[in-house]
Write a structure and sequence with these properties.
Layout: E1 5-13, H1 21-39, E2 47-51, H2 53-62, H3 64-75, E3 79-84, H4 96-114, E4 120-122, H5 132-138, E5 143-147, H6 148-153, E6 165-169, E7 172-179, H7 181-186, H8 192-205, E8 210-216, H9 226-232, H10 235-245, E9 250-253, H11 255-261, E10 266-267, H12 276-281, H13 285-297, H14 302-308, H15 319-322, H16 324-344, H17 351-366, H18 384-405, E11 412-417, E12 426-431, E13 434-439, E14 445-451, E15 456-457, H19 468-480, H20 485-492, E16 517-520, H21 527-531, E17 546-551, E18 555-566, E19 569-580, E20 586-594, E21 601-610, E22 620-624, E23 629-632, E24 637-649, E25 654-677, E26 680-697, E27 704-713, H22 715-732, H23 735-742
Parallel strand pairs: 1-2, 1-8, 1-9, 2-3, 3-4, 4-5, 5-7, 6-10
Antiparallel strand pairs: 6-7, 11-12, 12-13, 13-14, 14-15, 16-21, 17-18, 18-19, 19-20, 20-27, 21-26, 22-23, 22-24, 24-25, 25-26, 25-27
Length: 745
């Protein structure tokens, strides 16, 4: 005879900060709205719902009726709203003060929207560290939902995963629910009777079991082919009908209902972990392939199944070591958070400044949204628009803080410190328009170039590096000719290409795709060979440069020099980067090459990269010194003897000109990564690579010199801001408010 079971259905709806408005709308129409339509027809079936803050803000503006409908379900006790950190950060990726701040802020906001107290939180990507327990409890939260994988890693057998537990940190208690991985794979992909069969199995084996399903709401209509499956083919209605028909032994409830009705199964401390797939994705590519291969090869081995629960993959924080670009975002965010906290604690901050600090805190929180900081089965870090959005929020926060620390409207200053957390010193040159971060210890590169006017980091680049799924692409292409149509069709379901010939575009970078990358090249090196990473013969690209600063009231100069080798020859590069308040939208870079034997030929390239300016559109293009358009920003160009090249992104409102005192040949080409997403494999442009290069003979006397000037014209963006401010002026009639909106332009 089947026993009874308590079943909790909880759903997590999320769209990241910076996602396209059309994506929000499409997912709403495909998943969120039809799901609500169905659930409202089953008012006797309770469920829990978490909506991330970035999605909720969009819904408040665009779909208020949807939120009203949810509010009615909350009022009728069919729906429990689950809270969380406001903008869905990985908790281990942000400081403790921001964890507590984001959770408290979102609980207050949800209470305002839905009129209900928030007892639980969704744990972003189920990334857990034990110290979170005290932070979550300190924020006023009583429970969270964590993968049952975490509990298995703590040594619990399967029979003990059908209840909830209490965990503790620093004397604060938090209830933790195991989220069933088995249910996550069954719902909604298996037939409803198969789900019922599993529920019957659990109910018959265990006494008073609790089974929790918690997973993405996007699986219900937004994932490929799920809209037809879940709604047109009636999977969801059939499932809910089955639950109704079996209500005599399936007792549907919410997490709060469990807390109210049942005591905890015991106490537990959980190891640092995330959901199982995430622990695989964070591993280095070769280790990941080995781990996954071992798991698949031994799936049917009962001894392996007993052993695997004592093993786990990698640690989430190592996404920051696997992807230096993730660490750059993280380090920038941490620096702004620390600076904000220091200013908030200052007794000298005025009331007006506290308003600016509150705005900066919101931008900081938005800049902590997790999706851009990692990569797995989804685009995440590989999606430029998401990384650009994170930097946009962080730059806005930083610029607001600068309004507090710099009274004068026109200024220039410099900071030194370990800004990217690599145990070496970096330099940050700032003025009221730009922030330029330089790493002398790593090639003297500019690794971040923030333009305050339109809040963009022009060096939010991403290197091309090995990923385990690249081998799947190569294997598919290699085997395609040997497979018949049936075999090929079967494989094609798992290997989907969004563009042709992706196997031919898999290339890996040998140096960071940043700016002021100094490259001595083979004589007469071709663009084709350089694009493949061939022909670099010096050790300057990533070598350590000595650095010194010269400061003036209106100008700051950073001098970097390195003695290095080109083949078996020794010489020096000296480069001086100048930022001023008089010409705030310009970078002046002076180069000197000296110390090499005179009379010998050399080939020097200076690589520059520009992110956030994608190609493939007519309003994003190159133009030459005569003002003629010469191709969109994904064009491969091989220009001869030119002293100027400009890049325009009309949508961004950005015009970037590279001027050279010594005419140069210039190569341009897109840096494209091959990544995976739910839609398949795709090529994504990460930056526009521009390489002025010169073939010269070392002079008999004195150094070889050239001067580059990078001019960042944002007048289009500033005009748009002023126009928008003018519209607000007509609406609000508040000159003081217009002034604050326009500050920093």
């Amino acid at each position: 005879m089947t026993g009874s079971i308590r079943l909790v259905l909880s759903f997590h709806n999320h769209q990241p900060v910076g996602n396209f408005d059309g994506v929000f709308e499409q997912v709403y129409q495909d998943a969120y709205l039809p799901f609500l339509d169905v659930m409202q027809d089953y008012p006797d079936i309770p469920f829990a719902l978490h909506i991330s803050g970035s999605l909720l803000e969009w819904l408040e503006v665009h779909k208020p009726d949807y939120l009203s409908r949810l509010g009615s379900m909350v009022e009728s006790s069919q729906l429990e709203i689950i809270g969380g950190a406001f903008y869905e950060p990985i908790l281990s990726n942000i400081p403790r003060r921001d964890r507590i701040g984001q959770i408290q802020s979102y609980s207050r906001h949800l209470k305002k929207v839905f009129g209900t107290d928030i007892r639980g939180m969704w744990l972003p990507e189920r990334v857990w560290e034990q110290s979170f327990a005290s932070d979550i409890a300190a924020a006023g939260i009583q429970y969270t939902i964590i993968d049952d994988y975490h509990f298995r890693c703590a040594g619990l057998p399967q029979k003990d995963l059908f209840g909830y537990y209490v965990t503790e940190d620093e004397g604060r208690l938090l209830s933790v629910f195991p989220d069933s991985e088995r249910l996550r794979y069954l719902i909604p992909f298996s037939k409803p009777p198969e789900v019922l069969e599993y529920l019957q199995e659990v109910a018959s084996k265990y006494e008073n079991p609790v089974l929790v399903f918690g997973d993405d709401g996007e699986k219900f209509g937004s994932w490929p082919e799920t809209a037809k499956h879940v709604y047109e083919d009636r999977w969801l209605r059939d499932f809910l009908d089955l639950l109704r028909e079996n209500r005599s032994w399936i007792h549907l409830t919410t997490p709060s209902g469990i807390l109210n009705e049942m005591p905890p199964a015991g106490s537990i401390y959980l190891p640092d972990a995330s959901y199982r797939e995430m622990t695989e994705w964070v591993l280095p590519p070769e280790t990941q392939q080995e781990f996954v291969s071992l798991t698949r090869q031994n799936q049917e081995d009962p001894d392996w199944q007993r052993l695997i629960r004592f093993t786990r993959g990698g640690f989430w924080r190592n996404f920051r070591t696997r992807y230096p670009e993730s660490n750059e975002m993280y380090a920038r965010m941490i620096g702004i958070s620390n600076r904000l906290a220091k200013l908030k604690n200052s007794v000298q901050v005025s009331e007006h400044h506290r308003e600016l600090l509150a705005q900066a805190e919101t931008h900081l929180y938005r800049g902590q949204c997790n999706c851009s900081y990692w990569h797995g089965a989804f685009g995440g870090l590989y999606l430029p628009h998401l990384r650009n959005a994170i930097y946009s929020e962080l730059i806005k926060a930083d610029s607001l803080l600068e309004q507090i620390t710099h009274i004068e409207p026109v200024w220039v200053d410099v900071e030194t410190g370990d800004f990217n957390l690599d145990a070496r010193q970096e330099v940050r040159l700032n003025n009221h328009r730009l922030s330029v971060s330089v790493a002398p210890a790593t090639g003297g590169h500019i690794y971040e170039l923030d333009v305050r006017t339109n809040s963009v980091n022009l060096l939010a680049t991403l290197n091309r590096r090995p990923e385990p799924y690249h081998q799947r692409i190569l294997d598919y292409v290699a085997n395609a000719g040997r497979l018949d149509e049936t075999e090929l069709a079967a494989i094609s379901k798992a290997v989907k290409f969004k563009q042709p010939n992706l196997d031919q575009r898999i290339v890996y970078d040998k140096w960071p795709r940043k700016s002021l990358v100094d490259l001595f090249l083979q004589p007469r090196l071709t663009l084709e060979d350089f694009r493949k990473g061939n022909g670099v013969i010096g050790d300057f690209a990533t070598g350590t440069y000595e650095a010194s600063l010269r400061r003036g009231d209106r100008k700051i100069a950073l001098e970097m020099k390195r003695i290095g080798r080109v083949a078996d020859l020794t010489g020096e590069i000296r480069k001086i980067l100048i930022v001023s308040s008089d010409r705030p939208g310009e970078l002046l870079i002076q180069y000197e090459v000296s110390g090499f034997p005179t009379g010998l030929p050399f080939h020097l390239g200076i690589e520059l990269n520009f992110a956030a300016m994608p190609g493939g559109a007519n309003d994003r293009y190159f133009y030459d010194s005569s003002g003629h358009r010469i191709g969109t920003l994904d064009a491969v160009l091989n220009l001869s003897d030119t002293d100027r090249l400009s890049l325009v992104d009309e949508w961004l409102g950005m015009d970037v000109s590279i001027e050279s005192s010594r005419p140069a040949d210039i190569w341009t080409f897109p840096i494209e990564t091959i990544s995976q997403s739910e839609g398949g494999f795709e090529a994504v442009q990460q930056s526009v690579c521009v390489v002025p290069h010169w073939e010269f003979v070392m002079p008999q006397s004195g150094p070889w010199v050239t001067e580059l000037r990078i001019v960042l014209d944002t007048s289009i963006a500033r005009a748009r801001q002023l126009a928008a401010a003018g519209k607000v002026r007509k609406t609000l009639g508040d000159p003081e408010e217009i002034s604050s909106m326009s500050s920093g332009i």
